[in-house]
Amino acid sequence: IHSSVRNISSRKISKIKDVMIVGSGLMGAGIAQVAAAAGMNVHLVDQSSDALERAKEQIKDSMGKFAKKQFPDDKQKAQTHVQETMGKIRCHTDPCVPAGQADIIIEAIVENLEVKRDLFHRLDVVAANHTIFASNTSSLSIGAIAASTSRRDRFGGLHFFSPVPMMKLLEVIRIDQTSDDTFDSMMEFAKTIGKAPVACKDTPGFIVNRLLIPYMCEAVRMVERGDATPADIDTAMQLGAGYKIGPLALMDFTGVDLGKHIIDGWHKADPTNPVFQPSGLIDKMVREGKFGRKSGHGFYDYSQQKDAEKK
Ligand code: NAI
Protein backbone atom coordinates (compact mmCIF):
# COMPACT_ATOMS: atom_id res chain seq x y z
CA ILE A 1 0.00 0.00 0.00
CA HIS A 2 2.84 2.25 1.02
CA SER A 3 4.51 2.32 -2.40
CA SER A 4 1.32 2.44 -4.47
CA VAL A 5 0.19 5.56 -2.60
CA ARG A 6 3.51 7.14 -3.45
CA ASN A 7 3.20 6.18 -7.10
CA ILE A 8 -0.24 7.78 -7.43
CA SER A 9 1.01 11.08 -6.01
CA SER A 10 3.85 11.03 -8.53
CA ARG A 11 4.26 14.82 -8.77
CA LYS A 12 4.84 15.11 -5.05
CA ILE A 13 8.27 14.88 -3.50
CA SER A 14 8.57 11.48 -1.90
CA LYS A 15 9.57 11.84 1.72
CA ILE A 16 12.61 9.77 2.40
CA LYS A 17 12.31 7.76 5.61
CA ASP A 18 14.27 4.58 4.90
CA VAL A 19 17.82 4.97 3.68
CA MET A 20 20.08 2.18 2.53
CA ILE A 21 23.80 2.82 2.27
CA VAL A 22 26.11 0.36 0.54
CA GLY A 23 29.75 0.59 1.62
CA SER A 24 30.45 1.24 5.29
CA GLY A 25 33.92 2.75 4.89
CA LEU A 26 34.94 6.31 5.62
CA MET A 27 32.10 7.86 3.59
CA GLY A 28 29.34 5.27 4.08
CA ALA A 29 29.69 5.36 7.86
CA GLY A 30 29.48 9.16 7.84
CA ILE A 31 26.39 9.14 5.61
CA ALA A 32 24.75 6.52 7.87
CA GLN A 33 25.47 8.72 10.88
CA VAL A 34 23.92 11.91 9.51
CA ALA A 35 20.84 10.08 8.18
CA ALA A 36 20.27 8.25 11.49
CA ALA A 37 20.84 11.44 13.49
CA ALA A 38 18.10 13.08 11.36
CA GLY A 39 15.71 10.32 12.49
CA MET A 40 15.74 8.15 9.37
CA ASN A 41 15.85 4.35 9.42
CA VAL A 42 19.24 3.34 8.11
CA HIS A 43 20.30 0.05 6.55
CA LEU A 44 24.07 -0.03 6.35
CA VAL A 45 25.51 -2.67 4.02
CA ASP A 46 29.07 -3.85 3.47
CA GLN A 47 30.51 -7.03 2.02
CA SER A 48 32.86 -7.14 5.02
CA SER A 49 31.40 -7.67 8.49
CA ASP A 50 34.64 -6.26 9.96
CA ALA A 51 34.03 -3.03 8.05
CA LEU A 52 30.51 -2.90 9.50
CA GLU A 53 31.85 -3.36 13.03
CA ARG A 54 34.43 -0.61 12.48
CA ALA A 55 31.72 1.65 11.08
CA LYS A 56 29.51 1.16 14.13
CA GLU A 57 32.42 2.03 16.43
CA GLN A 58 33.29 5.08 14.33
CA ILE A 59 29.68 6.31 14.33
CA LYS A 60 29.28 5.79 18.08
CA ASP A 61 32.49 7.65 18.73
CA SER A 62 31.60 10.57 16.49
CA MET A 63 27.99 10.73 17.77
CA GLY A 64 29.33 10.85 21.32
CA LYS A 65 31.39 13.94 20.48
CA PHE A 66 28.46 15.64 18.74
CA ALA A 67 26.06 14.82 21.59
CA LYS A 68 28.48 16.26 24.15
CA LYS A 69 28.46 19.57 22.28
CA GLN A 70 24.69 19.45 21.70
CA PHE A 71 23.82 18.71 25.36
CA PRO A 72 26.79 20.14 27.29
CA ASP A 73 24.97 20.16 30.64
CA ASP A 74 22.98 16.96 30.35
CA LYS A 75 24.99 13.76 30.18
CA GLN A 76 21.85 11.62 30.26
CA LYS A 77 20.28 13.39 27.28
CA ALA A 78 23.53 13.10 25.35
CA GLN A 79 23.71 9.37 26.04
CA THR A 80 20.07 8.83 25.05
CA HIS A 81 20.62 10.71 21.78
CA VAL A 82 23.59 8.48 20.93
CA GLN A 83 21.63 5.34 21.81
CA GLU A 84 18.60 6.44 19.79
CA THR A 85 20.74 7.23 16.76
CA MET A 86 22.60 3.92 16.99
CA GLY A 87 19.24 2.15 17.32
CA LYS A 88 18.23 3.55 13.91
CA ILE A 89 21.07 1.71 12.16
CA ARG A 90 20.75 -1.92 11.02
CA CYS A 91 23.74 -3.67 9.45
CA HIS A 92 23.68 -6.21 6.61
CA THR A 93 26.21 -8.02 4.44
CA ASP A 94 23.76 -8.78 1.61
CA PRO A 95 22.50 -5.64 -0.18
CA CYS A 96 19.50 -7.50 -1.60
CA VAL A 97 17.99 -8.10 1.86
CA PRO A 98 17.09 -4.50 2.88
CA ALA A 99 16.80 -3.11 -0.69
CA GLY A 100 13.02 -3.64 -0.90
CA GLN A 101 12.41 -1.35 2.10
CA ALA A 102 14.54 1.60 1.02
CA ASP A 103 13.25 4.93 -0.29
CA ILE A 104 16.78 5.79 -1.39
CA ILE A 105 19.89 3.67 -1.89
CA ILE A 106 23.19 5.53 -1.64
CA GLU A 107 26.25 3.71 -2.89
CA ALA A 108 29.67 4.44 -1.32
CA ILE A 109 31.69 1.37 -2.32
CA VAL A 110 35.05 1.10 -4.06
CA GLU A 111 35.68 3.67 -6.86
CA ASN A 112 35.41 1.19 -9.74
CA LEU A 113 32.90 1.62 -12.55
CA GLU A 114 32.28 -2.07 -13.23
CA VAL A 115 31.82 -2.93 -9.53
CA LYS A 116 29.37 -0.05 -9.07
CA ARG A 117 27.45 -0.96 -12.24
CA ASP A 118 27.19 -4.57 -11.14
CA LEU A 119 25.86 -3.58 -7.71
CA PHE A 120 23.17 -1.24 -9.10
CA HIS A 121 22.20 -3.78 -11.78
CA ARG A 122 21.49 -6.35 -9.05
CA LEU A 123 19.67 -3.84 -6.83
CA ASP A 124 17.47 -2.66 -9.71
CA VAL A 125 15.69 -6.03 -9.68
CA VAL A 126 14.99 -6.17 -5.93
CA ALA A 127 14.41 -2.50 -5.01
CA ALA A 128 10.90 -1.04 -4.88
CA ASN A 129 9.65 0.88 -7.89
CA HIS A 130 9.81 4.27 -6.18
CA THR A 131 13.34 3.79 -4.80
CA ILE A 132 15.88 6.42 -5.81
CA PHE A 133 19.42 5.25 -6.58
CA ALA A 134 22.35 7.58 -5.87
CA SER A 135 26.10 7.20 -6.15
CA ASN A 136 28.68 9.02 -4.03
CA THR A 137 31.37 8.61 -6.70
CA SER A 138 34.02 11.35 -6.83
CA SER A 139 35.29 10.87 -10.33
CA LEU A 140 33.13 8.45 -12.32
CA SER A 141 30.26 9.40 -14.62
CA ILE A 142 26.87 9.05 -12.92
CA GLY A 143 25.32 8.41 -16.35
CA ALA A 144 27.68 5.48 -16.99
CA ILE A 145 26.74 3.94 -13.62
CA ALA A 146 23.00 4.59 -14.13
CA ALA A 147 23.06 2.92 -17.54
CA SER A 148 23.29 -0.47 -15.78
CA THR A 149 19.74 0.02 -14.45
CA SER A 150 16.26 0.48 -15.88
CA ARG A 151 15.59 3.52 -13.63
CA ARG A 152 17.66 6.36 -15.02
CA ASP A 153 14.81 8.75 -14.18
CA ARG A 154 15.23 7.77 -10.53
CA PHE A 155 19.03 7.99 -10.56
CA GLY A 156 21.39 10.75 -9.50
CA GLY A 157 24.55 11.58 -7.63
CA LEU A 158 24.92 12.58 -3.99
CA HIS A 159 28.53 13.64 -3.58
CA PHE A 160 29.41 14.06 0.09
CA PHE A 161 32.61 15.53 1.52
CA SER A 162 34.86 14.06 4.17
CA PRO A 163 34.41 14.04 7.15
CA VAL A 164 30.70 13.71 6.34
CA PRO A 165 29.31 14.73 9.77
CA MET A 166 31.36 17.97 9.71
CA MET A 167 31.18 19.07 6.07
CA LYS A 168 28.06 21.04 5.19
CA LEU A 169 28.27 20.77 1.42
CA LEU A 170 26.45 18.14 -0.63
CA GLU A 171 26.70 18.18 -4.43
CA VAL A 172 23.45 16.90 -5.93
CA ILE A 173 24.04 15.61 -9.44
CA ARG A 174 21.41 15.13 -12.09
CA ILE A 175 21.88 13.27 -15.34
CA ASP A 176 19.79 14.17 -18.40
CA GLN A 177 17.23 11.48 -17.53
CA THR A 178 16.88 12.37 -13.80
CA SER A 179 13.24 13.35 -13.24
CA ASP A 180 12.29 16.57 -11.46
CA ASP A 181 10.65 14.47 -8.71
CA THR A 182 13.86 12.56 -8.12
CA PHE A 183 15.95 15.71 -8.10
CA ASP A 184 13.54 17.48 -5.71
CA SER A 185 13.55 14.45 -3.39
CA MET A 186 17.35 14.41 -3.33
CA MET A 187 17.47 18.14 -2.54
CA GLU A 188 14.89 17.66 0.22
CA PHE A 189 16.85 14.71 1.61
CA ALA A 190 20.03 16.84 1.64
CA LYS A 191 18.32 19.55 3.69
CA THR A 192 16.73 17.05 6.09
CA ILE A 193 20.12 15.61 6.98
CA GLY A 194 21.44 19.13 7.63
CA LYS A 195 23.46 19.64 4.45
CA ALA A 196 23.65 22.64 2.13
CA PRO A 197 22.95 21.20 -1.34
CA VAL A 198 24.27 22.59 -4.61
CA ALA A 199 23.10 21.28 -7.99
CA CYS A 200 25.47 20.25 -10.76
CA LYS A 201 25.28 18.34 -14.02
CA ASP A 202 27.10 15.05 -14.54
CA THR A 203 30.42 16.61 -15.49
CA PRO A 204 33.89 15.31 -14.44
CA GLY A 205 34.62 16.29 -10.82
CA PHE A 206 31.27 18.08 -10.45
CA ILE A 207 31.99 21.54 -8.96
CA VAL A 208 34.51 21.22 -6.15
CA ASN A 209 36.90 18.61 -7.55
CA ARG A 210 36.69 20.02 -11.08
CA LEU A 211 38.16 23.27 -9.79
CA LEU A 212 40.32 21.87 -7.01
CA ILE A 213 42.19 19.06 -8.79
CA PRO A 214 43.46 21.11 -11.75
CA TYR A 215 44.43 23.84 -9.24
CA MET A 216 46.42 21.37 -7.12
CA CYS A 217 48.01 19.86 -10.25
CA GLU A 218 49.08 23.32 -11.46
CA ALA A 219 50.74 23.90 -8.08
CA VAL A 220 52.59 20.58 -8.54
CA ARG A 221 53.72 21.71 -12.00
CA MET A 222 55.14 24.89 -10.42
CA VAL A 223 57.18 22.71 -8.05
CA GLU A 224 58.22 20.49 -10.97
CA ARG A 225 59.49 23.50 -12.93
CA GLY A 226 61.28 24.83 -9.88
CA ASP A 227 59.22 28.05 -9.94
CA ALA A 228 58.67 28.02 -6.17
CA THR A 229 58.92 25.68 -3.20
CA PRO A 230 55.86 23.85 -1.80
CA ALA A 231 56.07 25.92 1.41
CA ASP A 232 56.15 29.22 -0.49
CA ILE A 233 53.28 28.20 -2.81
CA ASP A 234 51.16 27.20 0.19
CA THR A 235 51.99 30.37 2.14
CA ALA A 236 51.20 32.47 -0.94
CA MET A 237 47.74 30.95 -1.41
CA GLN A 238 46.93 31.16 2.30
CA LEU A 239 47.99 34.77 2.75
CA GLY A 240 47.34 36.06 -0.75
CA ALA A 241 44.12 34.27 -1.68
CA GLY A 242 42.71 33.71 1.80
CA TYR A 243 42.62 29.91 1.55
CA LYS A 244 42.70 28.01 4.85
CA ILE A 245 45.21 25.53 3.47
CA GLY A 246 47.62 25.72 0.50
CA PRO A 247 47.30 23.42 -2.55
CA LEU A 248 50.23 21.12 -1.75
CA ALA A 249 49.38 20.68 1.93
CA LEU A 250 45.84 19.96 0.73
CA MET A 251 47.05 17.33 -1.71
CA ASP A 252 49.06 15.70 1.09
CA PHE A 253 45.88 15.70 3.17
CA THR A 254 43.56 14.22 0.54
CA GLY A 255 46.21 11.78 -0.80
CA VAL A 256 48.66 12.17 -3.69
CA ASP A 257 47.61 8.68 -4.90
CA LEU A 258 43.95 9.74 -5.02
CA GLY A 259 44.92 12.88 -6.98
CA LYS A 260 46.80 10.70 -9.49
CA HIS A 261 43.89 8.27 -9.78
CA ILE A 262 41.46 11.08 -10.58
CA ILE A 263 43.65 13.06 -12.98
CA ASP A 264 44.66 9.88 -14.87
CA GLY A 265 40.99 8.89 -15.24
CA TRP A 266 40.02 12.31 -16.60
CA HIS A 267 43.04 12.39 -18.91
CA LYS A 268 42.05 9.01 -20.34
CA ALA A 269 38.50 10.24 -20.98
CA ASP A 270 39.57 13.62 -22.43
CA PRO A 271 43.26 13.41 -23.50
CA THR A 272 43.49 16.83 -25.15
CA ASN A 273 42.12 18.83 -22.22
CA PRO A 274 45.13 20.81 -20.93
CA VAL A 275 43.87 20.92 -17.31
CA PHE A 276 43.66 17.11 -17.21
CA GLN A 277 47.35 16.52 -18.07
CA PRO A 278 49.11 14.01 -15.77
CA SER A 279 52.18 15.18 -13.86
CA GLY A 280 55.56 13.43 -13.86
CA LEU A 281 56.21 14.49 -10.27
CA ILE A 282 52.90 13.05 -9.03
CA ASP A 283 53.63 9.76 -10.84
CA LYS A 284 57.11 9.62 -9.26
CA MET A 285 55.78 10.34 -5.77
CA VAL A 286 53.17 7.59 -6.07
CA ARG A 287 55.84 5.13 -7.32
CA GLU A 288 57.91 6.00 -4.24
CA GLY A 289 54.96 5.54 -1.89
CA LYS A 290 54.83 9.25 -1.01
CA PHE A 291 51.04 9.46 -0.68
CA GLY A 292 50.96 12.41 1.72
CA ARG A 293 49.97 12.46 5.38
CA LYS A 294 48.76 8.86 5.50
CA SER A 295 52.15 7.46 4.41
CA GLY A 296 54.22 9.93 6.43
CA HIS A 297 55.68 11.63 3.32
CA GLY A 298 54.32 13.79 0.54
CA PHE A 299 55.27 17.32 -0.35
CA TYR A 300 56.08 17.57 3.36
CA ASP A 301 57.52 15.13 5.89
CA TYR A 302 54.98 13.87 8.46
CA SER A 303 57.06 10.99 9.84
CA GLN A 304 57.69 12.82 13.15
CA GLN A 305 53.99 13.58 13.51
CA LYS A 306 53.09 9.94 12.85
CA ASP A 307 55.47 8.81 15.56
CA ALA A 308 53.98 11.37 17.93
CA GLU A 309 50.43 10.13 17.16
CA LYS A 310 51.47 6.54 17.90
CA LYS A 311 52.80 7.47 21.35
P1 NAI B 1 36.46 3.05 1.79
O1 NAI B 1 37.50 2.18 1.18
O2 NAI B 1 36.72 3.68 3.11
O3 NAI B 1 35.10 2.20 1.93
C1 NAI B 1 34.57 1.40 0.90
C2 NAI B 1 33.79 0.27 1.55
O4 NAI B 1 33.03 -0.39 0.55
C3 NAI B 1 34.66 -0.81 2.21
O5 NAI B 1 34.24 -1.00 3.55
C4 NAI B 1 34.43 -2.06 1.36
O6 NAI B 1 34.43 -3.25 2.14
C5 NAI B 1 33.06 -1.79 0.77
N1 NAI B 1 32.80 -2.43 -0.50
C6 NAI B 1 33.59 -2.48 -1.59
N2 NAI B 1 32.99 -3.12 -2.60
C7 NAI B 1 31.76 -3.50 -2.13
C8 NAI B 1 30.65 -4.19 -2.70
N3 NAI B 1 30.69 -4.61 -3.97
N4 NAI B 1 29.56 -4.39 -1.93
C9 NAI B 1 29.53 -3.97 -0.65
N5 NAI B 1 30.54 -3.30 -0.06
C10 NAI B 1 31.63 -3.07 -0.79
O7 NAI B 1 36.10 4.15 0.67
P2 NAI B 1 35.52 5.63 0.88
O8 NAI B 1 36.64 6.58 1.02
O9 NAI B 1 34.44 5.59 1.89
O10 NAI B 1 34.90 5.90 -0.58
C11 NAI B 1 33.71 5.29 -1.03
C12 NAI B 1 33.18 6.01 -2.26
O11 NAI B 1 32.96 7.38 -1.95
C13 NAI B 1 34.11 6.00 -3.48
O12 NAI B 1 33.32 5.95 -4.65
C14 NAI B 1 34.81 7.35 -3.39
O13 NAI B 1 35.24 7.83 -4.64
C15 NAI B 1 33.67 8.22 -2.85
N6 NAI B 1 34.08 9.44 -2.16
C16 NAI B 1 35.15 9.42 -1.30
C17 NAI B 1 35.53 10.58 -0.63
C18 NAI B 1 36.67 10.57 0.35
O14 NAI B 1 37.08 11.66 0.80
N7 NAI B 1 37.21 9.40 0.73
C19 NAI B 1 34.80 11.86 -0.83
C20 NAI B 1 33.63 11.73 -1.68
C21 NAI B 1 33.33 10.57 -2.33
TrEMBL record:
Site (Important for catalytic activity): H159
Domain 3-hydroxyacyl-CoA dehydrogenase NAD binding intervals: 19-203
Known EC number: 1.1.1.35
InterPro entries: 3-OHacyl-CoA_DH, 3-OHacyl-CoA_DH_CS, 3-OHacyl-CoA_DH_NAD-bd, 3HC_DH_C, 6-PGluconate_DH-like_C_sf, 6PGD_dom2, Mito_3-hydroxyacyl-CoA_DH, NAD(P)-bd_dom_sf
GO MF assignments: (3S)-3-hydroxyacyl-CoA dehydrogenase (NAD+) activity; NAD+ binding
Pfam families in the cross-refs: 3HCDH, 3HCDH_N
Reaction(s) this enzyme catalyzes, per UniProt: a (3S)-3-hydroxyacyl-CoA + NAD(+) = a 3-oxoacyl-CoA + NADH + H(+)
Pathway recorded for this protein: Lipid metabolism; fatty acid beta-oxidation
Transmembrane stretches, start-end: none
Family: Belongs to the 3-hydroxyacyl-CoA dehydrogenase family.
Entries under PANTHER family matching the protein: HYDROXYACYL-COENZYME A DEHYDROGENASE, MITOCHONDRIAL, PTHR43561
UniProt protein name: 3-hydroxyacyl-CoA dehydrogenase
Organism whose genome encodes this protein: Hypsibius exemplaris
